[in-house]
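Write out the bound-state structure for magnesium ion.
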Amino acid sequence: MKNYAIVLAAGKGTRMKTELPKCAFPILKKPMIQYIHENILKSMVDETTVVVGYQKEIIMGILGDSVDYAIQSTQKGTGHAVMVTKDIMAKKTGTTIIMLGDMPLIDYKVINKVIKYHRDKDNDLTVLTTKYQQPKGYGRIIRNEYGNIEAIVEHNECTNDLKRINEVNTGIYVVNNELLYKIVDKIKLNERKQEYYLTDIVEIMKPNYRVDAFELWDNEKVMGVNDLYSASVAEKYLRNEINKSHMLNGVSIVTPETVTIGENVIIEGNVTIYPNTYITGESIIKSGSKIGPNSEIHTSVIHNNVRVKHSLIFDSEVKSDTVVGPFAHLRNGAVIGENARIGNFVEVKNSIIGDGTKSAHLAYIGDTETGKNVNFGCGSITVNYDGLNKHRTKIGDDVFIGCNTNLIAPVEVGSRVFIAAGSTVTKNVPEGAFTIARNRQINKEDYAKNFITPKDDK
Ligand code: UD1
Ligand code: MG
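---
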């Protein structure tokens, strides 16, 4: 028998007070919905339908064609969101898990556990519940004198007595798919909110079907993110969990509460991460490297024994034994070779830098291919943009580029070239050449007095 998932992600997330649809909001730079999707993929679920509506293109852009989509053009509540999956889902036989798109901490093990529980108990509906010390905002679980679930009452509709109940609805339900659409059709409009509440299925099914509640002890895993504060709580929890697992794998993290590592980052043992450092996206950090403090690395590969200090590295690669920073910026596919040096206030964009090449201070290297053991003097610039188009610079091996050199692209500099400081190079330089491209100096003797009056004469 097949397992299906329905994920509700059509809402705007009014309480977030942000423009993005809530389920696309990033937690550790990854959209919430992606956490849910990745865990569904790891779980025993076979097929997934995501309900989209508000700014649906954004959610669909994140998930692509790996799931089916049901469109909820106007958001009339969680019950209505399930109704719109009818065309796609109603004819299927199997078990369906319904999940909300605002629970980024969900774990595939929880998904499997509740589906198995539902099957083992031969239930028609299983509601996943948990307990919070401060359950404000969640629907409360009402149980009868035998401890069986009777109903779910939304926070705003609870009397003061009901508000004291700390067992809540997580928003995860497992239901026999054949029954689901018969039941959701019976949900009545909640007049006060003008919404169809999915939570009503408990009371609708209770008289005729096996309805059960399964309580999860691990309450963090199912927290709902409804506003920017709860987004920060989710992020803090995830940050701690991720950092802990890296530390247990032999990654040394100094002041871990200031270090943020994304879920998909791979870090080998014997790496040290210093304070105020972010490593996110699909980044890989290899053994022996030391990263930070105050650095940001996104979707980049850092090879062995690299030192990165106070620097930004985006979509780039740094090979072994290289030093980056302080205050360097690598971006758009910069590839830095082994044993190289990209130092103070140097920006490298979309460029390949050979092994042993050094640019220690104040340089811009863009759209460039540079060979081995090149020295970029302080203030070297590859002038890649003419106001309309970008052009490439090519530099051979063992080239010495004097301070304050402009290489006006497109231009090629052969190997073993020496360029004198202050040159503006506009023509290709052949291998082995010495190039000087600046005005000759003129010294006019005894002439400075025309410009400077010594202070004592004022
Ligand atoms: C919901 C539950 C509440 C539960 C809590 C758990 C209802 C009525 N309430 O409340 O019992 O304790 O989750 O976190 O179900 N959505 C749609 N279409 C809609 C409305 C919502 O797709 O018309 C989606 C949203 O995008 C969101 C999810 O459903 O991902 C939940 O909606 P939200 O407004 O966050 O519900 P809660 O108030 O948190
Ligand atoms: Mg919610």
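---
The two ends are 99 Å apart (CA to CA).
Residues 374 and 399 are 5 Å apart (CA to CA).
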